[in-house]
Design a protein that fits this description.
Elements lengths: L25 E8 L9 E4 L1 E4 L24 H9 L18 E5 L4 E6 L8 E7 L6 E12 L6 E8 L3 E5 L5 E4 L10 E7 L3 E7 L4 E12 L7 E6 L6 E6 L3 E6 L4 E7 L5 E6 L6 E6 L4 E5 L5 E6 L7 E6 L6 E6 L4 E6 L8 E4 L5 E6 L18 E4 L2 E4 L5 E6 L3 E6 L21 E3 L7 E3 L2 E13 L3 E6 L5 E6 L2 E6 L1
Amino acid sequence: MNTSSQNQTNEDQLHFGGGNSFSSSYGPPQVYPSENQTQQSSQSQHNQTIPTNGTKSASSSPGYSQYPYQYSQSTQQQQLSQTLQNQPPQLPPINLNQSTSFKGHFESHWPLYSVDWAHCGPTDLNIIAVSTYSEDITNKIQIVQASPSVQPSTGLVLPKSLDFFPPVEFSVPYPCTRLAWAPSSYVASSSSMPLITTGDCLRLWNYNTDTRQLSQRCALVNKAKSSYMPPITNFDWNSVDPSIVITSSIDTTCTIWDIASSTARTQLIAHDSEVYDVAFVYNSTNIFGSVGADGSVRMFDQRALDHSTIIYDPSNPVPLLKIEANPRDSNSLAILASDANDVHLLDIRMPGGPVASLNGHQRSINTIRWAPPSAVPRPGGSSPGSSNISESGNAPTIKSFRHVIVSGSDDCQAIVWDASTTVQFPISATPLNHTSGGAGSSTSSNGSVLNSGNNKENYSIIAAYTHNHEINGVTWSRDGSWIGLTAGRGLQAVCL
């Protein structure tokens, strides 16, 4: 691929002197400590880089507040009453007497959107963060802790069922566009787990596992000359150096932050219009990709930010909403277009178009997530060179999670894909078991294997799960044995 680089003097470069004066539409990052401390065709694209040096100023932020939590209920009388009131019935609690219960459920007072299962912190804890979305001035971050269910009559642990504890909550003024725990490479203290949320700004939190308290450490904003602060659409937390975080914004920029010092390292104009998502490639602190309303995928290198490489730019572009970098393969990316019912897979060494597409959903896909690098393979009886997937009882046996990805859609279905294995068409998916209770039913997607572009490789569905609400967010547990889904007002944990 041909790329060109051109030196350019940035007339809008910030100048910090004795009075910290500057001339730019982007000023220094404003750092707001918490009031309560116990809270990127082979075309070349020229970019404008805006160096920044942060100054700090204090301001207040919303204080901590507790709100009542809500669990699922099971009585027919309550369900009937709520149905008559045009309210969705709450789900029954987990049946602890069934060892085949593969699920756990938490019901919030508000619709849920973003979700992330913690991979840092104590290995014996299942801690999940969710965020609400509401038109009200107040939205919530909720931290839910889960543990394996225990059968009361025998005291035996039911490993395929989870009980959720009451959530810890914190109020934020706007819905979170994303939230994420620190990557597994982060060396956490014995009890403190960092969390980042984005929306009106980038907020850094600490969650204390001993006291189960959530505290806001600071809020970071690249404040413009005007009072308008453009929303942050998404972010990525670097897994090699957890002090580096990159954010995207509707103002066409991406900003690289040093959260250890609460300062912005640099800001660049990445696209010609809104930037919707950004992601570092595997095992790199410098190379990242971005997507946005112009429908292109652009790759950047922090060491040469005066140009970018466009690896995907279709003739009839559709806005791209998400980019996910494979956490086990530095060349593999997954992208999601607006109102699309398929996921495109890209290889950054082969610019121009997708190398594969995963087709199986009937309606728009809302969310995608690669299996984490800490996911534990499940060796089966398959011979070497055969499919990565085999069946063992009611659960799929996965020999490698290298190219396993989950998607969630408006068709109320979550599909777990293996994009690495050529298989015989068709293949039958192994359903994620789900006991009765109204949250959904198990489903098997036979023959939902896809090819892409000129590639006639088949990509298999490992498992599929159907809910009765559109799925907004997906996440993986640390070892890959569970996936978490947000749908409606519920958080659903399903065991693979």
